[in-house]
Specification:
The complex is a heterodimer of chains A (about 290) and B (about 120). Chain A has one domain (about 5-290). In chain A, about 65% of the residues lie in helices and about 5% in strands. Chain A has helices spanning about 5-25, 30-55, 80-110, 145-150, 155-170, 170-185, 190-210, 215-225, 235-245, 260-290, and strands at about 120-125, 130-135, 140-145. In chain A, strands 1-3-2 form a three-stranded mixed sheet, with helices on both faces. The relative contact order of chain A is 0.19. Chain B folds into two domains: about 5-75, Orthogonal Bundle (Arc Repressor Mutant, subunit A); about 75-120, no CATH class. Helices cover about 55% and strands about 15% of the residues of chain B. Chain B is extended. Chain B starts with 13 loop residues before the first helix and ends with a helix. The chains are: A mainly alpha (about 290), B alpha+beta (about 120). β2 of chain A pairs antiparallel with β4 (about 100) of chain B. Chain A: Keywords: Hydrolase, Membrane, Metal-binding, Metalloprotease, Protease, Transmembrane, Transmembrane helix, Zinc. Chain A: Its cofactor is Zn(2+). Chain A: This is Peptidase M48 domain-containing protein. Chain A: InterPro entries: Beta-lactam_resp_regulator (IPR052173), Peptidase_M48 (IPR001915).
Chain lengths: ~290, ~120
């Protein structure tokens, strides 16, 4: 097996770098969808290549181990490399399991917080300012009195429109896919964060279209963030990015702007196919002996 | 007041949600006229009244007679229970907060300064 099997990991790093630049002038809807797709593709390729490497460990098991010193046999990767690959694969599986479990438990518990009824809204009498889109069928909004009281009538309309946009476009699926990809391949963590950020941007833009005032949405996002206590701090950069973006004209760039990331995904697919062929060649040679 | 640009494409139940949010934000019982004034739309009184009745029928709000009409407020027991469960799910669990689509996360002091500066420039 040659270098092709190691390339998806390297190309993941390149994908992250290129995506950051491509996202700047593109509509958040296209970025969210495009980067999710790219992340899932890159993670799949990464897992496949790690599996090829890890599977070469099988030649050390009986009965294949008996043929280890025969001449003319294609040499698989060195044992330690295969071991590292197996460990990375196991680590990724553990992270994936944990991410899926956290997501499922959190959503289930929030769904049980109250029945949304006709309004599709559950109000929690809590001073901490939170508004959450709780996915489900059809999904609902969970909002605290703490946030509602900080905002005026138009700002409340913004928050509700923003959370409705999350539910309508099923953003939880995209963010969950990107998070799963980043769990399997930790090099994609920046891509996961970018998808989460652009899903928020997408919902901001939809809310702005609905209330017809980008400045209002910007002030509303800032107000809610400033009202949140610092110990819950998670995404300062994300909020500042959203407010700055809302002060600029709405981005209209379409899919074509994502050509860079798309090209890298195609390259990842190509090297993974190459690695797969090489692996099959090695495996067939060994299986002929056995 | 102008009709909001979105009047035609508001999702189903959005007005109910806004009325319920208005009642919850007020923290005290409101008449249909109070709600009408608090909403940013140019809604007819009868529309507000209809939404309030619908919320009442779905058990989302309570009301009592006052003067010639009624005053409405959200059900407190449900809101307290929702808060208890929400707190149990999220408080002190940053790993759970990050999996959610939250409207706004908190900021540290430096980021808060940047944001305040940004707001001053925003028209």
């Amino acid at each position: 097996m040659t270098f092709a099997v190691y390339l998806p990991a390297l190309l993941s790093v390149l994908l992250v770098a290129v995506s950051k630049a491509a996202a700047r002038h593109t509509s958040p809807a296209a970025v969210t969808r495009g980067l999710t797709l790219a992340a899932v593709g890159a993670a799949t390729a990464y897992a496949a290549c790690l599996s090829f490497l890890a599977l070469t460990l099988l030649d050390d098991l009986p009965p294949l181990a008996a043929f280890d010193h025969l001449p003319g046999l294609p040499k698989p990767v060195p044992g330690p490399v295969a071991l590292v690959a197996a460990a990375l694969l196991g680590w990724g599986a553990w992270r994936l399991f944990r991410d899926v479990r956290t997501r499922r438990d959190t959503h289930r518990e929030l769904r049980s917080a109250g029945s949304p009824g006709a309004a599709g809204l559950v109000v929690a009498d809590w001073e901490a300012p939170h508004a959450v889109a709780v996915p489900g069928n059809p999904g609902h909004i969970l909002i605290t009195t703490g946030l509602l009281r900080t905002l005026d009538g138009r700002e409340r309309q913004v928050v509700l429109a923003h959370e409705h946009a999350h539910l309508r476009h099923r953003h939880h699926r995209l963010t969950a896919l990107a998070a799963a990809a980043a769990a399997v391949n930790p090099l994609l963590v920046p891509l996961r964060d970018a998808v989460a950020h652009h899903a928020e941007r997408w919902a901001d833009e939809e809310a702005a279209r609905q209330v017809g005032d980008r400045g209002l949405v910007a002030r509303c996002v800032a107000k809610a963030a400033l009202a949140t206590r610092p110990q819950l701090a998670l995404g300062g950069a994300s909020v500042i990015g959203r407010v700055s973006a809302l002060r600029r004209p709405a981005p209209h760039g379409r899919w074509t702007r994502l050509a860079g990331p798309a090209a890298i995904v195609v390259a990842i697919a190509a090297v993974t196919a190459t690695a797969a062929f090489e692996f099959v060649a090695v495996a067939t040679a060994w299986l002929h002996l056995a | 007041m102008a009709v909001t640009p979105s009047a035609g494409r508001r999702p189903h139940g959005a007005l109910e949600a806004e009325v319920l949010a208005t009642l919850a934000a007020a923290g005290e019982p409101m008449s249909a006229a109070d709600v009408q004034r608090a909403l940013p739309h140019d809604l007819a009184y009868n529309t507000v009244q209809t939404i309030l009745i619908r919320l009442l029928e779905k058990d989302a709000v309570q009301r009592r007679p006052l003067g010639r009409g009624h005053v409405y407020w959200p059900r407190h027991a449900e809101a307290a229970e929702a808060a208890r469960r929400m707190r149990a799910t999220l408080a002190g669990r940053p790993d759970r907060a990050v999996v959610l689509q939250q409207f706004a996360e908190g900021l540290d002091d430096a980021d808060a300064e940047v944001l305040r500066a940004l707001l001053k420039e925003t028209p």
